[in-house]
From TrEMBL:
Superkingdom of origin: Bacteria
Pfam families in the cross-refs: DUF2621
Protein name: DUF2621 family protein
Transmembrane in keyword set: yes
UniProtKB keywords: Membrane, Transmembrane, Transmembrane helix
Transmembrane portions of the chain: 6-28
Keyword Transmembrane helix attributed: yes
C-alpha cells in the first residue's frame, strides 16, 4: 500500500511540475509582450491605444461579427484573441481614416491577427458564416507564425501597401 501511495505522490509531483512549467511559459510570454520597446510602449500598450481610439468606430454589427469570429478559440483564450484581433482591426481602420469599422477592416485584421496554425479553423468559420475570403488570400502570408513574428506596425504597413 505504501508503494502505491509513493508512486501516486511521485506522479502528482510530475503533473504539478509540468503544469507549473506550462503556466510559467505563458506568463513569461505575456511578460515579454508587456516589455517596452524603443519608443517606451509595449506591443500590448499600442494595441490597447488603438482599440481605445477606434472605439467610436465600432458599431453593434461589427462587434457581433468579431464575437462570432472568435468562437472557435477556446474560451480561456477568447478574450485575449478578441483583443488582439480588435487591435489589428482598429489600427487598420484608423490608418485608413475610416468613419466606421467595415467588413473589409474586420477581414484584414482577422486574417493578420490569426496565427498561421489556426488558418484552417478560421477558413472553416468564414465558410460557415458565408463570408468570401478570396479577395484577402494574399494577406494570409502576413499572419504570425512560430518562426516569424510581425509587430502590429509591420503587419498593417504591409497590408496598406498591398495592391488592391
Amino acid at each position: 500500500m505504501n508503494d502505491i501511495i509513493m508512486w501516486l505522490i511521485a506522479l502528482w509531483t510530475f503533473v504539478m511540475l509540468g503544469l507549473l512549467i506550462i503556466g510559467g511559459y505563458f506568463m513569461f510570454r505575456k511578460f515579454l509582450k508587456r516589455m517596452p520597446k524603443e519608443d517606451g510602449y509595449s506591443e500590448l500598450d499600442w494595441q490597447d491605444l488603438y482599440i481605445e481610439r477606434a472605439l467610436p468606430l465600432w458599431n453593434e454589427e461589427a462587434r457581433k461579427l468579431l464575437n462570432e469570429l472568435v468562437t472557435p478559440v477556446p474560451e480561456i483564450f477568447r478574450d485575449v484573441a478578441k483583443e488582439r484581433i480588435a487591435g489589428r482591426i482598429s489600427k487598420i481602420a484608423l490608418d485608413e481614416g475610416a468613419d466606421d469599422i467595415t467588413l473589409d477592416h474586420i477581414m484584414k485584421g482577422y486574417i493578420i491577427a490569426t496565427p498561421k496554425r489556426d488558418h484552417k479553423f478560421m477558413k472553416k468559420k468564414l465558410d460557415e458564416l458565408q463570408i468570401d475570403y478570396a479577395p484577402y488570400e494574399d494577406l494570409f502570408q502576413y499572419a504570425d507564425d512560430e518562426k516569424q513574428k510581425f509587430s502590429i506596425f509591420e503587419q498593417t504597413e504591409k497590408i496598406s501597401s498591398r495592391s488592391k
